[in-house]
């Protein structure tokens, strides 16, 4: 689903805009890196594996995925993405997902953008709950959610298949009333 006016990124020198098909090569370039790919549930063997996501982003359905590009103001370069999937219009819930190129890790960008986008989603979409799931062992992502006031709720055993293997995920949530 196309996003109207994205929120402020919450981080100086970084902006948010709608993810576009022209971002695919830059996005795949860092998603395929072992240190990015390994601790996630991405199942990518080529850039073409991302194409169905773009088809969903272009859907007008209220429950289709939404994704923003995180872009460097100085270079215009894609440095990451953030958005929502598993959206329930009835329950007014969604799952947040984000990724960042390793050259931008450790600077607080993911934390700032995640906090900004989560808060914005309660106003923009009327979500009452946003959750994040983290593949067990991905402590970096868990720290991002915790620093954005997401609360740990527990372990989801064999929650998702990760490259053919049932895997455990920690679940975190943030409510509009938090």
> Which structural class is indicated by helix and strand composition?
alpha+beta
Q: Would you tell me the overall average pLDDT?
A: 95
What is the helix/strand order? EHHHEEEHEHEE
The oligomerization state is: single chain
Task: Kindly provide the name of the CATH class of the domain at 14-128.
Answer: Alpha Beta
Largest sheet: 7 strands, mixed
Instruction: Tell the overall outline.
Output: globular
pLDDT < 50 runs, ≥5 residues: none
Rounded to the nearest angstrom, the radius of gyration is 15 Å
CATH fold title of the domain at 14-128: Aminopeptidase
Strand elements, count: 7
Strand order of the largest sheet: 1-2-3-4-5-7-6
What is the strand content?
Answer: 25-35%
Q: Superfamily at the CATH H level of the domain at 14-128?
A: Gcn5-related N-acetyltransferase (GNAT)
């Amino acid at each position: 689903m196309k996003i109207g006016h994205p929120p402020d990124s919450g981080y100086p020198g970084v902006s948010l805009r709608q993810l576009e098909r022209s971002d695919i090569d830059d996005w795949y370039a860092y998603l395929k890196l072992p240190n990015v790919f390994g601790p996630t549930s991405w199942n990518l063997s080529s850039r073409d594996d991302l194409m169905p996501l773009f088809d969903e982003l272009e859907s007008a359905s209220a429950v289709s995925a939404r994704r923003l590009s995180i872009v460097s103001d100085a270079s215009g370069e894609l440095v990451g993405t953030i958005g929502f999937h598993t959206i329930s219009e009835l329950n007014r819930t969604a799952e947040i997902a984000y990724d960042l190129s390793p050259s931008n890790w450790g600077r607080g960008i993911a934390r700032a953008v995640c906090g900004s986008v989560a808060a914005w989603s309660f106003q923009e979409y009327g979500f009452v709950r946003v959750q994040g799931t983290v593949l067990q062992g991905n402590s970096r992502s868990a720290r991002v959610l915790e620093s954005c006031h997401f609360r740990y709720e527990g372990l989801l055993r064999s929650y998702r298949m990760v490259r053919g293997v049932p895997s455990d995920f920690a679940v975190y949530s943030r409510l509009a009333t938090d």
